[in-house]
Amino acid sequence: MATEDHDFAEINHFNLFGKKYTWESEQKGAVGRFSTEDMEQLLTELPEAYPIFEEAYRNSKNLADATRAITHELFGAYGLVSIDGDHAGLKKRCCGDRERTDRAAIE
């Protein structure tokens, strides 16, 4: 998942049945960290109920968690594995102390 991505304009909209729906938010930074609290208006604008999406966006603390919930609901039975590149533990385990590594490369 590209949870560290900062390009909100790429992911804040979708087209459904010929109509464009847009998530309006003033949040800044990595989009995976965005709170989903301000998606309520967008969910109420949809022409019909989509329980998988509604549950994910209403019950998740951020976009990364909501996306993971949706993809696991849709594809989990097929053995889907999600990796969140913005997960602090994953970064530390894979990259270690980046500052120390960068400093050593300069010296």
Average pLDDT for all residues: 87
Structural class category? mainly alpha
- Mind telling me the C-alpha Rg? 17 Å
Q: How helix-rich are the residues, as a percent range?
A: 40-55%
Q: Uncertain runs with pLDDT below 50, 5 residues or more?
A: 101-105
What does the overall shape look like?
globular
Q: What is the element string, with H for helices and E for strands?
A: HEEHHHHH
What portion of residues belong to β-strands? 5-15%
The CA-CA distance between the termini, in Å, is: 34 Å
Q: Please describe the biggest sheet, giving its number of strands, its sense, and whether it closes into a barrel.
A: 2 strands, antiparallel
How are the strands of the biggest sheet laid out side by side?
Answer: 1-2
For the secondary structure, the number of strands is 2
Number of helices: 6
TL;DR?
The chain contains six helices and two strands, in the order H-E-E-H-H-H-H-H.
What's the topology here?
Elements: H1 8-11, E1 13-16, E2 19-22, H2 40-45, H3 51-59, H4 63-75, H5 88-95, H6 98-106
Helix pairs in contact: 3-4
